[in-house]
Sequence to fold (259 residues):
Amino acid sequence: IFSIANSEWSAPWCSKILLQLRNKTVIDLALKKLNDDDRYMDKNFSVLKLKGRKGAESSVVIYRNEGNKTQEIIAENLKLSPDYLHNSIKLELVNANITVIDPFNKDAKSMSGFSESGVMSVNLSKELESRKNSEKSFQELINISNDMSKTNFARRKSIFELHRKLSSSLSCVFLGILGMFMGLRMSSGSKLMGVFLVMGLVLLIYLPSIVIGKWLVLDYHYDKLTDISHGLAPWIGGWLPFVLIGIVTTLLKPNFKGA
Fold:
């Protein structure tokens, strides 16, 4: 019960708070660098500040990537503000002109602009992180698995993680029983050895079975180009560790008839 509660509430909440703090730090550092330096380069955009001679007005040149298109933005002034909710930085531009470059379009360049001001958001995907599936709640995993806009690989991965978290929580029952069985098999002076044997079984059987189950579900016979997988059903790979540790527990059950 505690393991399921931890998987559903405690772990997702803690990981979400820690990730928000980390991403906030990254955004604040990027803002400081953008305000203090004349140049800034990121995966999604780069900024170059130009200063005119003898007190002439300065200008800002920005290159922003959006899908297959690249935007070249020239503005007189730039104001930055953080957007922690969407993990991005807002750019407030004054007297800006935009040139859109689309390599897949016959017209290589198309001009558009706004005369007074404009606001746009830029994601710092190069440095910001998102939560892993193992850090998400059951409801979040179910939502991803039902989202048809996601890739088949992403949906299979969320379904596998959902079953894996459930099986890991219930495996604690078998691990506890296994520890009791190993303690009964040992003499009074070898109780500590029983603990080490259970730990060895966990390292040699339980943890490798999680890796093998994940590989059979996600990586075995998966075609990245077509997004088609011929691996095991996600629920089979997710419950594989539970089944194996249950079999081991049954096989190591001591004989109580002679007790």
Notes: The longest strand covers residues 109-123.
